[in-house]
Design goal:
alpha/beta, binds guanosine-5'-monophosphate
Amino acid sequence: MTKAGKLIIVSGPSGAGKSTLLGKVFRQSRLPLEWSVSATTRAPRPGETEGRDYHFLSNKQFEEKRAGGEFLECFEVYSRGHWYGTLQSEVAPRLEAGNWVVLEIDVEGTMAVIKRYPDAITIFVRPSSLEELERRLKARGTESVEDIEQRIKVAGREMESIDFYRHVVINDDIEQATQQLCDILKQYDPETTQTH
Ligand code: 5GP
């Protein structure tokens, strides 16, 4: 009998530490987790790699894929002209293979995906406060002042959607948050008894 795959959606304000947290969960969990690599029209940040962090596309390439119906969902995430989208090709084959596919997408994207996959495991990762978020974004130093302001504004709006998510993880202490997220996922896999 083939095992059914699962869809895991992780959202939360930019700077809430989702990527670091998920990286640790991937290393620690024994579940068959796989990333869905999103497409975006934003430029790569230093250290980001094509095909690993994102599929970096031009506006024209993105639009062609959108017109061709290749996206499960896509949105202009920060209303600053950059598009982000989940490619069907990143999700469906992995689910069919029995893997647990992890989507790190925004709130709007989540709403669109759960219409198609109502059983998706939705998790919201948040910092303890918006002040803490601002501090982290400034410390990261990869966005302009305007970008940070925009992200804080969007974060406030996103936090209002927290109740749509099945689980909330407060990422103040990375080790605790990793354990919490591993425990949440384990709940969906009765066969797994250990996550370390
Ligand atoms: P960043 O530019 O910091 O990598 O990502 C910005 C935001 O875009 C994050 O909140 C992330 O969750 C969201 N995002 C990344 N990929 C996708 C996607 O494929 N679809 C949607 N809707 N949002 C995405």
